[in-house]
Amino acid sequence: MLILQILTKPSYLFIKIRNQVALLLLKLIKNRLYNNKQLEDQKNLIFVLSPGRSGSTILRKELIKNGIGIPPESYGFIPKFALWYAWNWYASWETIIEVCLRIFKRNAPLKHWQIDEADISRKLESLPKSEQTFYACVYTIYHDFIHRHYGNTPYWGDKTPYLTLFVRFLRVLFPNAKYVAIIRPSDKVIKSRMANFNESSKKATNRYCWAIKEIKKLKRITGYYPIITLENFTRNRTKAIEYIFNAIAFKRRPIKEKNIFLGDEYLPHHQNVMKNIYQHSYNLNINNDLDEFYRKVYLEEHKNYID
Prior knowledge:
The chain contains 16 helices and five strands. By secondary structure, it is of the alpha/beta class. It has one domain: 3-Layer(aba) Sandwich (Rossmann fold), CATH 3.40.50. It has a five-stranded parallel beta sheet. The radius of gyration is 20 Å and the shape is globular.
């Protein structure tokens, strides 16, 4: 009975142990995750981290305007494919392609991506053995969307808030990738998650705290990467974008506003993304322990690029 419960409804401890073991396995098979050329290419990859409902879609739009191809959210595709790959990396390349696409279709909303599954399969099957890696699978799927909507930009990324909870996996799978985080006061995020995702106050608060913890941890590990607040970003987008691109060492490649395609702007919680938002609404005197990190980032922004 206990085994059945674990299999049907895994406990937090079981999931934690499973993830730790998967991470260890992935570290042991680095040569199956990427080759040297792909490792170098990862320097053009960026992940947008956030607790959700914090402006990551607005930031995505601005990054696209400046030449970074970022498809719609991929939800659980990367972590779930990574978990499967950790235990099945030795499978045939045909099986890996098949499972990769199956996991993608189960997790990423196909209505947003509209991928050409047959073309992706052909491209992956034609790769030489030295390029048959985890990275190749992810790269090929993402660039199917990017090439159709943003052209041949060298820069690409992902802005799925859910991936913020899997930064440890991202650092193993894509060790040369860049990061930028956008955050917002806890009360606004929690209220928004409750209203838009029908989450309980406890679940929304836990999700916010978990994401902020991962964002802070990554900053300690890497030493530095750009973290911005939604309030300062909407106050001066031009300076914020300059700050981000200088920090990640990307060259801006502006495209016309009318050429921007998001694919998921019709979602209820994305309906204001195509509108300009300039209202500053944060009070630094707010008495909330959850926002200690927010206040620090907010003040650092003014020192670095606002004032």
